[in-house]
């Protein structure tokens, strides 16, 4: 036990685990069943269900909620819940989701709201991050991207930050072919692996044609780098960006210089990326129409 007293061992465990402790963990640290009962009665430990407790000296944080849910359910955090733990989304869902083995019963009364899906996962799709069992990053990113309305942004962020690669995503998709949502994730991976800027430009051109917006020229000459879409008579420039994953520091600097030159030459500028054109194309059209109307 390293020479620490029971209380010292408890304090260290609770600090490292967001205030969450199980009955088994407490007893392994030297706490007796009667002591657990006294702590519960004195409201020092709040029962969360399934022999899991929260020390009332600790707040029920998002991390504590996720940690407790995985332990109570006896599974691994998945989807957007796992994506939050991996750091590729900024908010934990209101209802944590957990994958459990197909035969596991999960009828425990719990103070934590969580959803369960029963399935078998390969070892390659499982990991432990900061003491919590979660789906591995590639499967997590694939499933979270498929589930969220802004899924391409999640995948782009994970690729940009190096949490996953196109190759690790493709291997996760191969291992989990046929699962719910994998088809959408596969489409996103296919887009990410291509020239997303060209794909975004193609989508924008289709939008303009569909809405019968005229007066534009694609790749309009402007110094050394043409304008992606220009409305010359209105001096309106529209620059199209792909996924951040594909952008380099040199490219970002060049874009900034081009933007400055456009502004100094009296052009107005709008920028749209692949995600905006994919998820809110009508908003992009409205902005173009408003800009053209303002110039009239």
Automatic annotation (TrEMBL):
Pfam families hit by this protein: AbiEi_1, DUF559
SUPFAM superfamilies listed in its UniProt record: Restriction endonuclease-like (SSF52980)
UniProt-listed Gene3D superfamilies: VSR Endonuclease
Occurrences of domain DUF559 (ranges): 196-292
AbiEi antitoxin C-terminal domain ranges (all copies): 73-142
Protein known as: Type IV toxin-antitoxin system AbiEi family antitoxin domain-containing protein
InterPro entries the UniProt entry points to: AbiEi_C, DUF559, Restrct_endonuc-II-like
């Amino acid at each position: 036990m390293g020479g620490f007293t029971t209380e010292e061992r408890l304090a260290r465990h609770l600090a490292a685990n967001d205030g969450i402790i199980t009955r088994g963990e407490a007893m392994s640290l030297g706490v007796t069943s009667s002591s657990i009962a006294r702590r519960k009665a004195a409201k020092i430990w709040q029962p969360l269900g399934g022999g899991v407790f929260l020390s009332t000296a600790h707040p029920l944080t998002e991390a504590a909620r996720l940690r407790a849910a995985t332990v109570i359910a006896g599974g691994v955090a998945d989807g957007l819940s796992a994506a939050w733990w991996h750091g590729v989304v900024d908010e934990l869902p209101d209802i944590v989701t957990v994958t459990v083995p197909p035969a596991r019963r999960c009828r425990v009364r719990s103070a934590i709201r969580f959803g369960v899906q029963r399935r078998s996962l390969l070892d390659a799709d499982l990991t432990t991050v900061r003491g919590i069992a979660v789906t591995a990053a590639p499967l997590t990113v694939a499933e979270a991207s498929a589930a969220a309305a802004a899924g391409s942004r999640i995948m782009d962020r994970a690729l940009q930050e190096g949490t996953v690669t196109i190759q690790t995503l493709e291997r996760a998709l191969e291992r989990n072919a046929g699962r719910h949502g994998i088809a959408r994730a596969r489409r996103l991976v296919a887009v990410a692996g291509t020239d997303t800027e060209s794909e975004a430009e193609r989508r924008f051109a289709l939008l303009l044609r569909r809405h019968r917006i005229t007066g534009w020229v694609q790749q309009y000459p402007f110094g050394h780098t043409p304008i992606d879409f220009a409305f010359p008579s209105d001096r309106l420039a529209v620059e199209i960006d792909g996924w951040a994953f594909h952008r380099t520091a040199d490219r970002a600097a060049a874009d900034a210089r081009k933007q400055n030159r456009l502004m100094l030459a009296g052009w107005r500028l709008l920028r749209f990326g692949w995600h905006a054109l994919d998820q809110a194309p009508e908003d992009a059209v409205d902005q173009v129409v408003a800009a053209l109307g303002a110039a009239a």
